[in-house]
Amino acid sequence: MASPHVAKNADPESEGNRILKSGAIGGLLRRPEMGAAAGAVAPWAYFAIVAGDSGFLSLGGTASYLEVSAQLGILAAAICLLMIGGEFDLSIGSVIGASGMVLALLTVEYGWNIWPAIAVAAIASLGIGFLNGVLVLRTGLPSFIITLATLFIIRGLTIAITRQITGRTQLGGMRDVAGFDLAQRVFAERVTIGSAGFPISIAWWLALTLVATWILLRTAFGNWIFGVGGNAQAARNVGVPVTRVKVLLFMASSLAGCLVAVIQVISSTGADVLRGQQQEFYAIIAVVIGGTLLTGGYGSAIGAALGALIFGMVRQGIVFAGVDADWFQVFLGGMLLIAGLINQFVRSRATESRR
Amino acid sequence: MSEPGVSSTTPLVETRNVSKYFGRVQALHDISMTVHAGEVMCLLGDNGAGKSTLIKIFSGVHPPDEGQLLIDDRPVRLGSPRDALSAGIATVYQDLAMIPLLSVSRNFFLGAEPTKRIGPFRRFDVATADAITREELRKMGIFIRDTGQPVGTLSGGERQSVAIARAVYFGARVLILDEPTAALGVKEAGVVLRYIAQAKARGLGVIFITHNVHHAYPIGDRFTLLNRGRSYGTFAKDAVTREELVSMMAGGEELEALGHELEEIARSDAQIAPAMRQAARDVTAGGERAG
Prior knowledge:
The complex is a heterodimer of chains A (355) and B (291).
Chain A: H1 4-30, H2 34-51, H3 59-84, H4 92-109, H5 114-139, H6 143-166, E1 170-171, H7 180-188, E2 190-193, E3 196-199, H8 201-218, H9 220-230, H10 232-237, H11 242-268, E4 271-272, H12 279-289, H13 301-320, H14 328-351
Antiparallel strand pairs in A: 1-4, 2-3
Helix pairs in contact in A: 2-13, 3-8, 3-9, 3-11, 3-12, 3-13, 4-5, 4-6, 4-11, 5-6, 5-11, 7-11, 8-9, 8-13, 12-13, 12-14
Chain B: E1 13-22, E2 25-35, E3 40-44, H1 51-58, E4 66-71, E5 74-76, H2 81-86, E6 89-92, H3 104-109, E7 115-118, E8 121-124, H4 126-139, H5 156-169, E9 174-178, H6 186-201, E10 205-210, H7 213-219, E11 222-227, E12 230-236, H8 242-250, H9 252-268, H10 273-290
Parallel strand pairs in B: 3-10, 3-11, 6-9, 9-10
Antiparallel strand pairs in B: 1-2, 1-4, 4-5, 7-8, 11-12
Helix pairs in contact in B: 5-6, 8-10, 9-10
């Protein structure tokens, strides 16, 4: 090359700018949460029209669906990472019941301060997540089967042990527990805006969504999550510690279940062995509506948050619209079906050759 | 051990009388092979010949049951693919080289992400990853419009090429390519062969595994033939023709045996005898012509 300077100016740089531009727009359209973002507008607009004058659009109405969205969204943020990592966790609903009961038993029944009780519940949930992960990776069985098994085992243990100790399946009286006031500030405070009280769980939801997004897009660990979900063997070949990544994701999803349990127990000042039933399915639905692939390797935590938002709007919107709540499940299944089809389309677009 | 066509330099990697068993099956029997800097060693063999097992010994997946693996003339024991990588042996697997839904630059740095420290946190430095990926691919002569596009949108040849560029960038001295041209069309295969030549020109030792002599012959310096876990020997390019390699690949003796088999059938069944006799003649003649 006689004149590298000229060569540099002539071709690649100017070319590079143009590429960058189309790349930025293409990149936005390629984001997994795009479908969910569009999908979130539709139910909001629908219920705004149908139920706008019966309170859906009011601050109180907004607070009511955001509260539903927030608790599900906390689960969805963690489940989303796990699913991008290529695994399921069906046991998370049972973890909610179990950690809530651990918290209530230690405080109400044994007189502990609430904070060490929360710590024990968190450690117990991390232990369950660890067990799920190790079982999945050691046995090579699908996580669907392993966590379906732990779903029943944990729920059964929670019911049996609680009845053994207390003779009941519900425990109340959290309000009198030592340390309750501060815990209520942290997990169950309501911030009054206008006439409506917005629960602090919304802040937890948004914060965890941001953390999950940061991890996914801006840390090496996030890249490993995509890698182990996209192709575990390929990831292993280039030195990604596949087992460690997956076990940590299982532990995170259990911990998210514990956080929701703590929020519920403190807000309602009691625990019930049946808490969290079906939450595992709702969380998966929120994550899939948010654009994450069931097969792993692709997805977004922001999408999962949007999925949870849609879930909350539909669940509460139906109530505001005066429709029988029985129809909720029909809506939910329908949305899942549509989201699944959109995902399928997105995935084929992303993998098809562009030439 | 005197091997044909070997320079006097120390081999980068070597197997010495390596055998490997899986239960009672002997996958490899007494294989000795060397790879030197700046050469392309082609490992030829049909399905089930033991090529995959041999690469897995080089790449740290399996330890040999007998014999030795040597790196720079020193006996080593590789416990994992990670060990092999840090010893400078990189393997590009045909189907498992890349993650389709992940972007080009994220694939390029998967498992070795560049990070920046922000307070107590380490951030994945996406901008640096993009820039290095673009630059490294350019060095290999690969022009990709957007390093953020999913690898799945690349053609098969481009994917293999990105994987090769990655291995070179991360300091591989020995590059093992497992059937890199198998699922590719002629033009695409040509692209991959070009990058193999580039890797060789940069002084890497390349082990090119294939069952396609026509892809191996133009690029290879030496050829090791495997058949049912045994080595037929190593041949320098100037000591062997393409046709001879084809014949040995198919197994000259086996063709002869197949010929006899067909003759037997011809004798026992009069109805199809003429066709079988013709087939038998074709098989043996083909083997002789090539041999």
